[in-house]
């Protein structure tokens, strides 16, 4: 599974892999083709990678055993994408496996996290968790991107439908340029200041409209409550009589 995520100005590609424990090079080809579409997006791989690259890790086959072709192909896909085994990178002297199922009598390096090298500076913690015979890797990343106070402002479409506002705006624009075009300022400065001025003017206008609407709705609500109170009092008086 490959999911593109975007949160708080930070984009990443989440890759959930369950690699076959037999040679299936088509799996790696498909994975490589999907990841190539997001070449410039930082990647986070998780899942069961069945990643056995060292013969010494596998106790059931002896030192003469050679890695599966799919393991080498998967390593090539990771290298092409700038992907690293983050726990191995941070624990050079640690063991090479995280799982020992007694039924199969084999050491396996599964449930590792692999990330783009560009994310290494965001790693807060990477440790092994002991769960019975399983030792999955716990990875903590700081993914919040830089927050910006800037915003993209667009002229409200409903304002262009307001004839009175359009007339006021046209008059304001004429007065602005008449007052500033004869100054010593460059036209670029006048234009940039004009955009900020129009933005402020429009926002102020709409803020005034919102406040007026809010006050009007509050008045209507007060009238409704008053009317219901009067009706209830009349009903109570008639019942008493």
Automatic annotation (TrEMBL):
InterPro entries per UniProt: Endo/exonu/phosph_ase_sf
Protein species of origin: Pleurodeles waltl (Iberian ribbed newt)
Gene3D superfamilies for this protein: Endonuclease/exonuclease/phosphatase (3.60.10.10)
SUPFAM superfamilies: DNase I-like (SSF56219)
Protein name (database record): Uncharacterized protein
């Amino acid at each position: 599974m490959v999911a593109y995520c975007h949160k708080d100005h930070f984009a990443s590609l989440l890759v959930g892999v369950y690699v076959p424990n037999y040679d299936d090079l088509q799996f790696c080809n498909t994975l490589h083709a999907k990841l190539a579409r997001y070449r410039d997006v930082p990647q986070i791989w998780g899942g069961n990678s069945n990643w056995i690259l060292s013969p010494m890790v596998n106790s059931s086959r002896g030192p003469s055993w050679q890695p599966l072709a799919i393991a080498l192909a998967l390593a090539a896909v990771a290298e092409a994408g700038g992907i690293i085994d983050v726990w191995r990178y941070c624990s050079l002297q640690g063991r090479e496996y995280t799982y020992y199922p007694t039924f199969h009598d084999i050491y396996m390096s599964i449930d590792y996290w692999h990330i783009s090298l560009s994310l290494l500076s965001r790693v807060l913690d990477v440790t092994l968790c002991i769960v019975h015979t399983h030792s999955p890797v716990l990875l903590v990343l700081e993914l919040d991107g830089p927050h910006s106070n800037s915003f993209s402002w667009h002229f409200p479409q409903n304002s262009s439908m307001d004839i009175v506002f359009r007339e006021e705006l046209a008059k304001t624009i004429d007065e602005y340029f008449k007052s500033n075009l004869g100054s010593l300022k460059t036209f670029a400065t006048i234009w940039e200041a004009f955009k900020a001025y129009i933005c402020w003017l429009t926002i102020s206008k709409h803020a005034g409209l919102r406040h007026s609407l809010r006050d009007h709705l509050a008045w209507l609500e007060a009238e409704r409550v008053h009317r219901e109170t009067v009706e209830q009092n009349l009903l109570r008086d008639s019942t008493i009589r």
